[in-house]
Amino acid sequence: MENISIIAAVATNNAIGNKGDLLWHLPEDLQYFKRITNGHTVVMGLRTWNSLPVKPLPNRRNIVLSDVPLSIDGVEVCLSIEELLRIIKKDEQVFIIGGGIVYNQFFDLADTLYITQVLHDFEADTFFPVIFACDWAVVKESEIFTDKKSKLKYQFLVYSRFIRLKDLE
Ligand SMILES: NC(=O)c1ccc[n+]([C@@H]2O[C@H](COP(=O)([O-])OP(=O)(O)OC[C@H]3O[C@@H](n4cnc5c(N)ncnc54)[C@H](OP(=O)(O)O)[C@@H]3O)[C@@H](O)[C@H]2O)c1
Questions:
Q1: How far apart are CA 79 and CA 169, in angstroms?
Q2: Structural domain 3-168, CATH architecture
Q3: Percent residues over pLDDT 70 in the chain
Q4: Whose CA is nearest to atom 37 of ligand 1?
Q5: Confidence (pLDDT) at 1
Q6: What is the pLDDT of residue 127?
Q7: Which of 8, 21, 68, 115 sits at a 20 to 30 Å CA gap from 14?
Q8: Which residues 6+ apart lie within 8 Å of 144 measured at CB?
């Protein structure tokens, strides 16, 4: 089975984005994202791709999901999840990096969630799925940090999915 993880920065009301942009600027979170995904494969929706200030993300295999075939330098474009699952190797570490539409589609396929929990509510138009405590266990929890500039408080959490019944069949 593929090794699929989700990585996202999520507000306490599950907000992740508004009008095509992120809701905050947290340099430490960007460093964390880089460290965790470095050398691996990142998968994103076309809108998230369009919002990236630097692209493709260096030292990572960049895959973009799009409903229309596109030719973009340094990127593989997939027209469906089925196509994506066909082109990733069994031992490849795949990170789903957003946005809302893509997180929703991969939520049931992922085994690990790397969540930067931003301890604040935000008005938004894009949200992360609800992480139910009956499905996910927190396996790593950082201290609570405060961003120097915005004063936002945030914490790095790693969740692991409880074993699924279908995996036991
Ligand atoms: N806080 C965070 O960690 C975080 C991370 C990433 C993004 N974001 C935010 O999330 C927002 C963007 O999210 P979004 O939900 O609007 O869009 P998105 O998930 O980034 O992209 C959605 C688009 O991807 C394509 N797509 C998705 N699934 C597909 C599939 N199965 N097959 C083919 N194409 C597929 C479609 O593109 P087309 O139909 O156009 O071809 C779809 O409209 C932005 O505000 C961004 O800043 C936040």
A1: 31
A2: 3-Layer(aba) Sandwich (3.40)
A3: 95
A4: 66
A5: 55
A6: 98
A7: 68
A8: 119, 153, 154, 155
Closest CA to 21 of 9, 32, 33: 9
Mutate to test the pocket of ligand 1, among 126, 128, 156 (most ligand atoms within 8 A of CB): 126
Residues contacting ligand 1 via CB (< 6 Å): 8-9, 16-18, 20-22, 44-48, 51, 65-68, 79-81, 97-102, 105, 126
The DSSP code sequence of 25-65 is: --HHHHHHHHHHHTTSEEEEEHHHHHH-SS-SPTTSEEEEE
Specify the 3-state DSSP secondary structure of 102. Answer: helix
Phi-psi group of 151: left, alpha or beta (phi > 0 → left; psi -120 to 50 → alpha; rest → beta): left
- pLDDT for the residue 168: 62
Domain ranges (residues) in the chain: 3-168
Phi first, then psi: give them for residue 9, nearest 5 degrees: -110, 125
pTM of the model: 0.96
Instruction: Reply yes or no on whether the pLDDT at 123 is more than 70.
Output: yes
pLDDT in tens, 66-122: 999 999 999 999 999 999 999 999 889 999 999 999 999 999 999 999 999 999 999
